[in-house]
Amino acid sequence: MTRYVMVIDLNTCVGCNACMAACSLENQTPVWSDHWRTYVHDRESGAGNSVRRHFIPRLCNHCSNPPCMTVCPTGATYRTSDGVVLVDESLCMGCQACALACPYKARYPYTHADIKTGKEYYGALRRKAPSMDKCSFCHHRLKVGELPACVRTCPGGSRMLGDLDNAAHPVAELVHNGTAKPLLAHLGTRPNVYYIPQR
Amino acid sequence: MSWQFPKLTRRRFLQSSGGVAGFSLLAPTALASGETQGGGEVSKEQVYSICNFCSSLCNVQVSTETENGVKRIVKLDGNPHSTLNRGKMCARGQAGMRQVYEVDRIKSPMVRVEGSRRGEGKFRAVSWDEAWAYIAERVKTRNIHPWEWTMVGGWTSCVFYMYWAVPFALANGVPNIVASPMQHCVASGHLGTDSVTGNFNIHDEVLPDYDNANYILFVANNASIGAISTSRMVRFAEGRKKGCRVVALDTRLSETAAKADTWIRIRPGTDLDFLVAMLHVILDEKLYDEEFLKKHTNMPFLVARDQNGAWAIATDAAGNPRVIQDRSGEVVSILPYSNQNTVDIHGAPVHPALLAPAGMLLEGRPVMTVLQAQMAEIADNTPQWAAKTTGVAAATIIQTARDFAAAGRPIVDPGWHGARYANINMLRRVQAMLQALVGGIDRKGGWIMSGEYHHKVAKWHEAGRTLPGPLMTTLAGVPFVSELVKAISNPKTFPHGRPAWAFAFAAQERAAGREAVAVPALADTGLLESVTGKLIYNGEPYLTRAIVINAANPVRHYYPDTQWKSILTHANMELVVVVDVLPSDTVPYADVILPNPTYLERDEPTIYGNGVNHDLALTTRFSAIDPLYDTLETPDILLGLSKVISGSIEPFVKTLEMLSGIPAQQTMAAYEKYRAQGAKSPYSRACRDVAFATTAARVHTTPEKLHLSLKQHGVHLEVSAEEILAHHAMPRQMALPTTSGRLEFFGSLFVWLRDAMGGKGPSFNVLAAPIPAACRPGKTMDQPLEKDEFYFTYGKTPTISYGSTNSNNPVLAAINRFKKDIYTGVWIHPERAALLEIRSGDRIRITNTFSKQQAEGTAYVTSQLHPDAIFLHSSFGVENKALRLSAGIGTATNKLIPYLVEPVVAGFRSQEFTVRIQKI
Amino acid sequence: MEIMSYTTQDMWTWWFALYLFLGGMGAAVIVVSFLTHMYLREEKELVMWGALSGVAMLGLGSGMLFLHLLHKWAAIYILTPWGILHKPDSWIAWGSQFILWLQIAAVLFALPFMVEKPRLLRWPIIGNVLKMEIVRNVAATAARFQTLLGWVAIITGLGTAVYTGLLLQSFPAVVLWHNPAVPILFTVSAFSTSMAWLLIVMYVFIYHRVDHTIRALYERVDIGLITAELVVIYSFFNYTLSGSESGYRSAELLWNDSGWVLGFVVCGLMIPLVMELRCVFGRWTGKVPIVTASMLVLSGGYLLRHYFMAAGVYAYPW
Ligand SMILES: Nc1nc2c(c(=O)[nH]1)N[C@H]1C(S)=C(S)[C@@H](COP(=O)(O)OP(=O)(O)OC[C@H]3O[C@@H](n4cnc5c(=O)[nH]c(N)nc54)[C@H](O)[C@@H]3O)O[C@H]1N2
Ligand SMILES: Nc1nc2c(c(=O)[nH]1)N[C@H]1C(S)=C(S)[C@@H](COP(=O)(O)OP(=O)(O)OC[C@H]3O[C@@H](n4cnc5c(=O)[nH]c(N)nc54)[C@H](O)[C@@H]3O)O[C@H]1N2
Ligand code: SF4
Ligand code: SF4
Ligand code: SF4
Ligand code: SF4
Ligand code: SF4
Ligand SMILES: [Mo]
Q: How much is the ipTM here?
């Protein structure tokens, strides 16, 4: 069995936003509405001489126990056998319950208006219906053996993807040996995106 | 954290109105995004190209889809075959495909509407024939002479079309070229580094081997690393993952500094003091690589003061440098040009001493080694001394020096963007010296010069240090620059007997007893005077009356904006031609706009080297789609202009053969063929065909095989870095193209500038020494500022190139909205902001205390910078409303920076003043 | 992580509060009126008013939700009964079914009374519909299964009222929502507001057509419900003040907001409680005080949900 996990090394993320750009173009997201499947936050902590600057990429955590899926009334949100949480746009009615349920702010609405603009913008829009949208781990790429668009382009090599069930994979190892840690683990969502804290 | 009732605002994305009439009137010749109907068969294809958004020159893979006969670009990625960017790309590169589909693109040639003034931006679309006729008519009726033309080129015109642009100028008798990266970047910053290493390639930035370094010191770097140059970032990330220690000297917590183990918050303009103190410590404590210095640098050379008290190499009668034999103390002459000091002029072994005995006399004059002279020069510049101005504890400076020297494989990054202060030459020079002190040049974990550069220098050596072939394509390093400078500064180059106005102006200034720029090569000093009739040459005005601006945006990129606006709108200016893809801030000042196809629509006219890559490789662009609009490629435009200026294309074509090795006959034959076929840019296509043939011959393959290799991989690897270093590492294996062939601590380039070009003052010091930044007349950097007074600093945003038109890219514009406060705000420290009662989001006015220029901005209060400084990103402040997504956003540097240049190469002193901040 | 940020959501806003408010109240109105009719006294007027106003409220509330769906066609998946088989874990799936069947059951339950009511038959359109043969047949059949229909309505109605709270409870990131007291609070509030609404109906529209004892009973029950609500609110106050930053910030948002403190707690709970107490103890007589108190309870019911939605604080590690 495959279980996809992403590990993000905060030591080499420089906040270049290439992942945001790559993702939006790969997945035809509505940048004109300021919605993205992934964001890179640029935050400050501390003050005076101990001030620090943090770049924190975020995306759907592909939770193994996803509250977004539980609340979804139509079954549009589902989990694949390889551990990726997806939204079936033909089933989704866009009630947005999943967005409120998600503790990681991973979801946004892809509206009728967005589809209209998207057709002009992308020329040929793959999407046919509005729905909630979020990171898919680029499942369409994983299926053909390619890395997600954001991982592929990340100049910091900060974003890495691997199979947790393949213990020999370097990414899996980072998770298994505790180097990489999940976000908000106490909520019981069992996220599959892990972060290597900045040293 | 207030909860609001539903927001109904949705950002208008594709507005249909607004902007300059001339642009929005244009109906696209094809649907901007090539919209398709229905769902036909989709066929996918991949081609390779080169990114066009910064001189990192990343190799790109372009994915296209064809549906119902319409081919669209759907995605860009880093080319996985590329050892330069290793399959990665930054946000600008990723978003690059949107340039093709930009709704605001220039879609056909345009001519300024009769009766309107330059700057109003009123244009009407015309055909190419009409555009050419318009230019020809102007040149004829206004009687514009070749020397009255000036060419302005941006970095893309330089990197991709220099082989055409320089011959174009020389062939048509145009001595005047302004290259927009020079005064900011290439000339002003790199000159210092190059004086030590002899490097000078087109965009000669050195790519250090971060992969294998274990200590990296960054000095005023950010966009060149983390924010972002992809080829550097991928290597830096590897190094950091392996545990490399990183120290960043920056006035603010930049993206790069945020990834450092230690961020040293230095006072702006004082980096040189810090580095000179480091040099002091390393020399004083003998922490350098002694054997390397003895063998491969001019550190052991003997120097003495000449009759004017100036330092000079104490050569023998034949002009050979001399060193002291270690142990025996004997003075021996060594080869004037060599990569090493191991044999004397007679071939006997030499082991030079680094230190001459105290009080040593040679031919009656006191002499010492370069190392000793250097130590004496900076004897007072201790860490304690530097602590005062830099605001950094002496202990930190000492520690940095010791850590750097002890690391084993340390790198002090060479730095990229120049300008800022008059001392930037010296700063970058000291950086090169520090790197040389530890022997870290052209070796694993140090600075490694590019494969292409090694290749050219090796060929030059093989040819006995004479021109190995056509000047443009085969010569590299300082010898190349000096050839170019000679050509444009020498009145005899042209039949009309005029040098470039920049040199004429320098001579006029010198004659008037004023300070002049020593080498104003490709700089803009004197242009205003030439346009306004204040430049007199041989008793008559040397006027500039026509200008062609290709892929450059001087109104935005030069300082101040008013200077270029007055140049372009002056009554003497008869013709302004602008070649661009988007309506930049300069475009409204054109009489004629000639549109290029965007980079993804282009098959380039030749095959290029692989930029700063350590490997020797070839690359080129393959067009992903046919040009969407009525556009022409640069070589065809230059050909057209040649017809107008010289009445014939013959001189151009001939000069091309001579300087760039593009065989005239074959190219013309192919050109006629393509023209007959009605091809869009027939001349560019012809050049490309010929380039494949000549390059294939050079790399011993067939044009077909070379084509296939490039088509399939986008890069054609010739020689790996390992192999290059094994045979051609400089200076270990091969002499550098410096005057002496060694790494030069004693700067022969500055000896020339001082003695031959009349350079005076600390900027022309032949040794390293501090040059204080002069931000306030009569005051040192550490003296307290007024309550509302700040040093001015700027830097680039990861998402924008320069102040370029890609700020209008919808993807990048959206990222910039997301990080609006950080990217478009004016950074100010909370302690200082509190005193002025300024809070984040407040509108503020910034006033230059020196020039009184003013601009407004939005405050972003953050502890991430030095309290003495404000910081803003130099990427914003677009004025032209035809750039609908970026006009009016942020604060423009070109509205705050006055015209202030340093005396060596006219580098902009773009931070050498203070500003006042006021809440409005 | 060194960085945390705390924000509220802006997707489910006032319209969703309205959905929760009308949904809970509408369901409770039906339940209360039907239970009254079935087990206290026969009150056909009350049943008709309860059923029709309850169905209208549910319709209006669901309409709010429907209007805000991104893709309205796909709502079909939650309206077909077998949808629930796919998604038994989703409260919205249950809630939608409850609301659907509740509305059907409520109308059918009231239909036999409606077809006999001359005043209704004189109404345009509705009168004509009620006179249709098929409708009269349906009414006749419904009359035969009235108890069953009543219980269907009561169960789905209870379900709906509880569901409005369960829905919020299923959002784990927000401490204010993610606790079992939310369904209790919302259910209590639903019933309290339903009492208030029915009191208004009884005092204003059908004063002479219902027995006074019902009014008296409702007033007393409402006093109990409001008291219970105050207790729950107080316990929320305590609960959110310690334990997590998300909860603490919710408490800050709520208790620093006059809309919550004055609008909801004081005007929506305390004042009507006092007023109703005075009415019950006979200090105040006449319709005005009790109708005023009821209106205050209604506005409080909306404000509760409004501020509850607004004050849900997410804690993000960036
Ligand atoms: N305000 C500001 N000014 C700066 C800087 C800054 O950060 N801010 N940075 C400085 C530095 S370091 C440098 S190197 C220089 C670089 O300055 P330039 O070399 O001038 O840089 P670009 O912005 O790439 O190019 C300018 C113009 O080229 C156009 N262009 C893009 N693609 C094409 C094309 O395919 N064909 C043609 N014909 N035109 C094209 C753009 O629309 C733009 O108007 O700028 C310097 N000036
Ligand atoms: N995103 C992006 N990347 C680019 C480019 C681009 O346009 N956009 N252009 C490319 C080109 S042509 C160039 S020249 C390079 C430029 O790359 P860099 O030379 O790295 O230039 P900047 O990012 O402008 O400035 C670097 C840092 O200098 C700091 N600084 C300012 N003043 C001082 C000072 O006095 N002392 C110290 N220690 N620090 C100071 C600023 O805070 C900033 O963080 O970037 C290349 N990469
Ligand atoms: S692409 Fe990589 S380095 Fe750049 S912001 Fe995204 S995660 Fe960070
Ligand atoms: S918005 Fe779509 S995916 Fe989300 S809960 Fe509703 S139906 Fe499911
Ligand atoms: S991160 Fe959010 S959207 Fe993604 S699976 Fe988890 S709960 Fe669902
Ligand atoms: S995995 Fe794919 S969908 Fe998810 S953030 Fe990365 S590029 Fe976007
Ligand atoms: S660093 Fe970015 S903008 Fe520069 S060439 Fe590479 S991908 Fe293009
Ligand atoms: Mo530059």
A: 0.95
